[in-house]
Specification:
The protein has 41 helices and 21 strands. With 1269 residues, the chain is α/β, with parallel strands linked by helices. Helix 39 links the parallel strand 18 and strand 19. It is elongated and about 120 Å long. Helix 3 (66-84) packs across helix 6. One of its GO terms (molecular function) is ABC-type transporter activity. Residues 636-674 are annotated as: Disordered.
């Protein structure tokens, strides 16, 4: 092992931004530039000229990056956890005990406060200062009115007050934007800190706790719940600033109207109970909505990861109905929430005529959703705290500091379990494994073989005893975990490249022939979860990763089961065996291949979680116990396959691999028909460019439904007209009061004036209520329609799409983008419409008081539109890039959850945490640039609004007392409001355009190529196929146009009820043949005929629904055993029990408390791989079709289970046509005929006996496998 790479330490440095990245100049610019964000103008200019790209954006300040934020927060969280614990008592015991005491567990909010308190205090100070300046403007406005009343002509102090109003407004604008910028960055820092902690917790979470949280639920914690915490931070200052503004308003009003202001205060106090009731109800609705969202995302995640099974079994409609059922429940909650908002708006809008105009004006401009935001966040904080306080793996369960000199691993009376309060899975283990030895573990399915390795790794909860191990660990899991990265990076796994040793690893793992087929050699990117490579290739890459790590202890969970026999022999001889590269290392090998046992230094036989026997091969043979029965069954069933040391004539591939290594460059593209490498590079998410297409908005409005749109416009038009009418009525009323000389006459008209004012207010409230109701109905209609279209489009995509695109991209559309559609987009539309009407009304009111104002409005309005157009190009593209940057965060997190055991075994937690910081950092860059761009826009828009207000005040001063004081007051009041209205109008116009990106992303799947229709006009007769005759006629197929043919002129025909074995070396086209039969891959020439029907002329579901397949990787979905066996609900319980009995699972299922209703964990993690494969067999038994395809169906089970499966298939499918793709050649030796493939062509097709006599390709493969007839 000399020259092997040195393992990296636990500390990993991030890949720092290159010098080409644009460092943020914010910290080095002048004060004025920092206040006005002028330094950001160059980026806006670049975005206006061309679509922005990643390299155009400014980097984060180091203090805002996750590399700084996360460690600081984790330090405070550890302190909080330490305060909440007593001694070393496990957390789950503490929670049980503390329910009876005053202990409440660690507080997430308190930890966040301790981490970010100085920044939050700074934000609060800026908010307070901006609020005080906001109240100075009405006082200056009052002074202008006084000047107007007392001086018939323009007066000097009036000009001074106009300039003072402008100065105060500009100062308030700059301070408010400084507050907004710091507030948003504080919020995103909090979200970043929480996301980082969730990720780290997921890596340390105990398996018993992990089973309480599905991948979808944990992803929701990172996206939805962390987002709620961010939203609370954005609005947290309103908890004190709202009462502060009310108190200030009451003080000023007291000076004007005296005790009558208390009437308004009483009304405000009366609506508090109403708000409390609404908040309580909203809290319950939010919990329900998050629960349904979790269920939906969880189900979608499982469907997308198991999409191949859904398509092969034609189960898409059944699972589509399941998703839509959950979605309907979620939409019902959204409907209730929308109606609650309608009631809330009615309550808030009907009180204007009950309080004074000024008091209500201050209150009405408070955000009515803040109480509800806090309520939603309380639910999220509770969920986050529950997850973060869940039990971790106990590092003390395994003593890794074992300093013994003779043993690498030792168990002393060890008992272990997977679940809290569950029964022990491993019992009383006592064994010492010598250093440098090869130990094999054998046993039946479910006997505890894989659990033995998990106990060594510390993945199980230790009940009693001692476990000790020494040195570094490399782990190869039974189901290979592959990263979405290049093949080389998958093997290096964070280590430095040592080219000679790396080449040696490639040769030893039989990967060189595969590399020669790749376009970019070992730089070819492997798809998510290794979807674009075969099971055998995944396992060899996983083994290469372990081999390259140069660890001290190797834990190998049946890595030979997924590879061809001759490749398995090569791997054992070159790597695992006595003369392999690991001969000096300690190796613990779980295996079902008994041919390797004679080479083992120690054999452990597991039975029901115990070590039933242990010893060398000769010792166990001499004892003539269960071990002899095992070997006898093996040898009799597998046609004299030798159980003596592996010796066979070298294969062509081995000859090739055996050649001496020479220095080489990364291998270049070579034309190949290899079906395994059907996807050569992994597609990155495409980011749209250019302006928002009207077609996108039209799609939303069509889903919104036109009738709701027109009703919404009418309602908002009416309510804004009535709002202006109210204010004009008050203005007229005030003017008449000033002119009345007879108090008695004024008092008589008072009731009439008050009734009209009240009627206007009440009517406005009704229209607000109507507008909110129709908007809710329309938005729910859009949510339903767009979700249904997205789900339908995704399920109709061909399988190749899922193999070339990370699942995170699709999940991102069902979470982040649909969140915008559900809750945000209609709010932006409503706000923009309202602001548009307010701006028009404001201009009309001010112009009526000062006609000259129109001269100012036109150029300033044009400048506003110009600024908006100049800004929107950059904002829209930054939002698009941000949306795309969120997918890698989700994909990396999902990838980490899937491979957490491997990551922990290699000790690479810190490196993956650093990688998470990297992808989060990229996402934050877009957020940072987006926040600054918003502030850049706001400063400029509000400055233009301040100019409008200044000119409105100036024209009033110029008019002198020719205009009534009431009209002056109304004019300046509207001038003050235009700053906010104009800013909001442009901002919401930009928000609509940038958030339309979500609708664009949701709808883009409609434009992708779909697979052929599920059902066509031509349908096969009932009972088809009834004979099971399959005929390939000159069939050709390729995975992509730029690749060679994966099948090239294949022609053969099966007989009815014939058993055909399909064999061939890696890349021969075995899996492609199956894909073509199920039309996962459509042919380019020729045809496939089944019982007289060309399968290309019927629908996919008519075809796939009448075929059966047992895949190589057993896929189960979370839910009951019953739903996994029969998702369509076609079979009775009796039929299910019969199928389970045939698969030898009846006793196991009957032993479960819930029996058929036993909950299967996500991915079937609470069942062994063998049990999962047997359940897949039970599925097929229930379908009872005439054609069955076995795709390495017994690769992951022991020999006894293999025998059971094979005998069950022979017995139950005796009248069916069976196609068997095999790595273990013994499974096809009793076939009626064998089809030998090579490079997509048929080499041989005859009975096994004739092929063996012919001494051709099949005979050579049999000789290599050591099988004798």
């Amino acid at each position: 092992m000399a020259g092997s790479p040195r393992r990296q330490s636990g500390c990993y440095e991030r890949l720092s931004a290159s010098g080409k990245k644009k460092r943020s100049p914010e910290e080095n610019v002048f004060f004025f530039s920092k206040l006005t964000y002028s330094w950001f103008s160059r980026l806006i200019s670049v975005g206006y000229k061309k679509p922005l790209e990643r390299d155009d954006l400014f980097e984060l300040n180091e203090s805002d990056s996750p590399y700084t934020v996360c460690p600081n927060f984790e330090k405070q969280w550890r302190k909080e956890m330490h305060k909440s614990t007593t001694g070393l008592m496990p957390s789950y015991i503490q929670r049980v005990l503390f329910k009876k005491t005053s202990f409440h567990g660690p507080s997430l909010v308190l930890s966040l406060w301790q981490t970010f308190k100085f920044l939050l205090i700074k934000v609060a100070f800026l908010k307070a200062t901006a609020n005080i300046l906001a109240f100075m403007s009405p006082q200056i406005m009052k002074a202008i009115i006084m000047v107007n009343e007392n001086h018939p002509s323009p007066y000097g102090s009036g000009y001074g007050y106009a300039f003072a109003l402008f100065f105060v407004a500009v100062s308030q604008t700059l301070l408010h934007q400084l507050y907004q910028r710091n507030n948003m960055l504080a919020a995103v820092k909090i979200k970043t800190a929480v996301v980082g902690l969730i990720y780290k917790k997921a890596l340390t979470l105990a398996n018993s706790s992990r089973r309480n949280y599905t991948t979808g639920e944990i992803v929701n914690l990172m996206s939805a719940d962390a987002q709620q915490l961010m939203d609370l931070t954005v609005n947290i200052n309103l908890l004190w600033s709202a009462p502060f503004q009310i108190v200030m308003a009451v003080i000023f009003l007291w000076q004007e109207v005296g005790l009558s202001v208390l009437a308004g205060v009483v009304v405000l106090l009366l609506i508090i109970p109403i708000n409390v009731l609404i908040a309580t109800k909203e809290k319950r609705l939010k919990k329900s909505q998050m629960r349904y969202s979790d269920q939906r995302v969880k189900l979608l995640s499982e469907m997308l990861h198991g999409i191949k099974i859904l398509k092969l079994y034609a189960w898409e409609p059944a699972y589509q109905r399941k998703v839509m059922s959950i979605r309907e429940c979620e939409v019902d909650v959204l409907k209730s929430s929308g109606y609650l908002t309608t009631y809330s708006m009615l309550t808030l809008t009907c009180i204007p005529f009950m309080v004074s105009l000024a008091t209500f004006g201050v209150f009405f401009h408070l955000d009515k959703e803040n109480v509800l935001t806090a309520t939603k966040t309380k639910v999220s904080v509770s969920r986050l705290e529950d997850f973060l306080c869940a039990d971790d793996l106990n590092p003390e369960d395994v003593n890794t500091n074992y300093n013994g000199t003779d043993h690498a691993v030792e168990f002393i009376g060890g008992s272990f379990r997977w679940e809290k309060n569950g029964l022990p899975v491993l019992k009383n283990l006592s064994v010492s494994i010598p250093e440098g030895s090869l130990v094999t573990i054998v046993g039946q399915v479910g006997s505890g073989k894989s659990s033995f390795l998990s106990a060594v790794l510390g993945e199980m909860e230790k009940l009693e005893g001692t476990v000790q191990r020494r040195g570094s660990v490399a782990y190869v899991s039974q189901q290979a975990w592959i990263q979405n990265d290049t093949l080389q990076e998958n093997i290096l796994f964070g280590a430095n490249l040592n080219r000679p040793y790396y080449e040696l690893v490639l040769e030893s793992c039989a990967l060189l022939p595969d590399l020669e087929q790749l376009p970019n050699g070992d730089q070819t990117e492997i798809g998510e979860r290794g979807v674009n490579i075969s099971g055998g290739q995944k396992q060899r890459v996983s083994l290469a990763r372990a081999l390259y790590s140069n660890a001290d202890l190797y834990l190998l969970d049946d890595p030979l089961s997924a590879v061809d026999v001759h490749v398995g022999k090569h791997l054992f001889e070159k790597i695992i065996g006595p003369s392999g590269l690991l001969k000096s290392k300690t190796r613990i090998l779980v295996t079902h291949n008994l041919t390797v046992l004679p080479h083992a230094d120690l054999i452990i036989i597991m039975e029901e979680g115990r070590i039933s026997q242990m010893g060398t091969y000769q010792e166990l043979i001499s004892k003539r116990a269960n071990f002899v029965d095992l070997t006898r069954d093996f040898s009799s069933e597998h046609t004299s396959e030798e159980t003596t040391p592996m010796k066979a004539s070298p294969s062509k591939e081995e000859d090739q691999l055996g050649r001496s290594l020479q220095p080489r460059e990364p291998l270049k593209h070579k034309n190949s028909s290899s079906d395994q490498w059907k996807i050569l590079t992994n597609n990155k998410e495409k980011v749209a460019t250019g302006g928002m297409k009207m077609s996108v908005v039209l799609k939303y409005l069509q889903a919104f439904k036109w009738r709701w749109m027109w009703l919404t416009i009418a309602a908002y038009l009416g309510q804004n007209a009535l709002a202006i009418g109210q204010n004009l009525w008050l203005s007229i009323w005030t003017a008449e009061t000033a002119e009345v000389s007879d108090f008695t006459e004024w008092k008589q008209s008072q009731n009439y004036k008050l009734c009209i004012y009240g009627l206007l207010g009440f009517t406005q409230g009704l229209l607000v209520c109507c507008g909110a109701y129709v908007l809710t109905r329309g938005s729910l209609s859009a949510s339903r329609a767009l979700h249904r279209q997205l789900l339908d489009n995704v399920l109709h995509l061909p399988l190749q799409h899922f193999e070339t695109n990370p699942v995170g991209q699709i999940i991102n559309r069902f979470t982040k983008d649909l969140f915008i559609v559900d809750l945000r987009f209609h709010y932006y539309l409503r706000t923009w419409l309202n602001c548009t009407l307010e701006v028009i009304g404001t201009i009309l009111v001010i112009t009526s008081a000062s006609p000259l104002f129109i001269v100012v409005v036109i150029p300033l309005g044009y400048l506003c539109l110009a600024v908006q157009r100049y800004y929107i190009a950059s904002s829209r593209q930054i939002r698009r890039l941000a949306r795309a940057s969120h997918s890698p965060v989700i994909s990396h997190f999902g990838e980490t959850l899937a491979g957490r055991s491997t990551i922990r075994a290699f000790g690479h937690q810190e490196r993956f945490i650093r990688k998470n910081h990297d992808v989060v950092y990229e996402n934050l860059i877009y957020f940072y640039n987006s926040v600054i761009s918003n502030s850049w826009l706001s400063v400029r828009l509000e400055f233009l609004g301040n100019l409008m207000m200044f000119f409105a005040a100036l024209f009033v001063v110029l008019a002198g007392n020719t205009v009534s004081s009431s009209t002056v007051g109304l004019s300046i009041l509207y001038a003050l409001n235009i700053i906010q209205s104009l800013n909001f109008w442009v901002r919401k116009a930009c928000e609509i355009e940038t958030n339309a990106v979500s609708i664009e992303r949701v709808c883009e799947y409609a434009n992708l190529d779909k697979e052929k229709p599920w059902i066509m006009s031509k349908r096969p007769p009932v009972g088809w196929p009834d004979r099971g005759i399959i005929e390939f006629v000159n069939y050709k197929a390729q995975y992509r146009k730029n690749l060679g043919l994966a099948l090239n002129g294949v022609s053969f025909q099966t007989q009815s009820k014939e058993k055909v074995g399909i064999v061939g070396r890696t890349g021969a086209g075995k899996s492609t043949l199956t894909n073509c039969l199920f039309r996962v891959l459509e042919g380019t020439e020729g045809k496939i005929v089944i019982d007289g029907i060309d399968i290309s002329t019927i629908g996919l579901h008519d075809l796939r629904g009448n075929l059966s397949i047992i895949p190589q990787d057993p896929v189960l979905f979370s839910g009951t055993l019953q739903s996994n066996l029969d998702p369509l609900g076609k079979h009775s319980d009796l039929e299910l029990w019969e199928a389970l009995e045939l698969c030898d699972l009846k006793d196991f299922v009957q032993s479960l408390p819930e029996k058929l209703l036993h909950e299967v964990a996500e991915g079937g993690e609470n069942l062994s791989v063998g049990q999962r494969q047997l359940l897949c067999l039970a599925r097929v038994l229930l379908r009872k079709t005439k054609i069955l395809v076995l795709d390495e169906a017994t690769a992951s089970v022991d020999m006894e289970t293999d025998n059971l499966v094979q005998s069950t298939i022979k017995r139950e499918f005796y009248n069916c046509t069976i196609l068997t793709i095999a790595h273990r050649l013994h499974t096809v030796m009793d076939s009626d005929r064998v089809l030998v493939l090579d490079a997509g062509r048929i080499l041989e097709y005859d009975t096994p006996r004739n092929l063996l006599q012919r001494n051709g390709a099949f005979s050579e493969m049999v000789a290599e496998a050591g099988i004798r007839r």
